[in-house]
Amino acid sequence: MKFSIRRNSFITALNDAQRAISSKTAIDVLTGIKITLSASKLTLTGSDADISIETVISQEDEKAALQIDEPGSIVLPARFFNEIVKKLPEDMMTITIDERFQATITSGQAEFTINGLDSETYPHLPEIEADSKLTIAADILKQIITQTVIAVSNQESRPILTGIHLAYSNGELLAVATDSHRLSQRKITLTDAGTQDYDIIVPGKSLSELAKMLGDSTENVEIRIAENQILFTFANTSFYSRLLEGNYPDTDRLIPQNSETTVEFNAVDLLHSIERASLLSHEGRNNVVKLSLKTGAQKAVIYGNSPEIGNVEEDLSFKKLEGNDLEISFNPDYMKDALSSFGQTDITMSLTLPLRPFTLVPTEDGANFVQLITPVRTF
Predict the structure, then answer these.
(1) Cα 254 off chain centre by
(2) Per-residue CA distances from 323 to 201, 298, 320, 354, 373 (Å)
(3) Could you tell me the residue range of the domain that residue 158 belongs to?
(4) Average pLDDT across the chain, whole number
(5) For position 106, which CATH number holds?
């Protein structure tokens, strides 16, 4: 096996495939990167058994300047190999593999020799032959992931909540995540999608890595779903993830359908106020911020308190305040995550009682995006 390639193009593909590789894997071969060279393309594969990423560099890619001398395949130690490639002196690099699975990497005057493994020992990627697919713009998919993954649970005691619930039916895709203290739900209409319905749970960790890879691209992502796997295909990359098994909780009943008090804020202004209030709450044993709404006086005040250090009180500016007077306490970190997901828009906060969950929705399009937070008991 022998090929030459521009180092920058190779590093980009190598970094993408390496996202799937974990140093904690129990299978030694999965700490390596699989390199497969055919007559027309170079394929790099990384996997930790849960996530697998395959990225392809074609001989037709002029930027890569891929020159194929002899096809073949090998598995090389990923972290060490990546460090070598990054530090090579020249723009071009050549990799030669001998029959003992020893790789010689040359660039300019530098030459490295490292030991590899037979690629036959590397697990095969899942075969997903589903004809039906969903198509979604990469920037929209990235937005859906970043808006919902914040509510995914980190507790392995309830593994089903460590995933995002994706349900597709009648042209509408619903994404929901909850850790039982907060919930994030996003709906979107897909125009180019199949007729088959789906109801799956994708690990939040997988989707977080996928979102990082999507960048700001506006090209389309194709989604194919098999019995226990999901495949996202975009650009020259195939991203596989296992699915979580089990039934996701019925989250519809958690979202209040009516409210006693509503207030409209600018999301960014409120976020900054909560950041200031949480400076003190983070120093205390109880990380809690209190919001007081007085509709008669048309006043909204936020309080942060740390008995060890002091307290903060700030009058909030708002667009509209209606309903009953209310005081409610919440975890400011949950609130900051939720507000950050709205961007520059105005939001409507709907509340019922001091210990009942409250919702945040964009004022202009409240039907398609909901953040829900459970208050904290302070008495």
Answers:
(1) 24
(2) 38, 10, 10, 14, 19
(3) 134-252
(4) 93
(5) 3.10.150.10
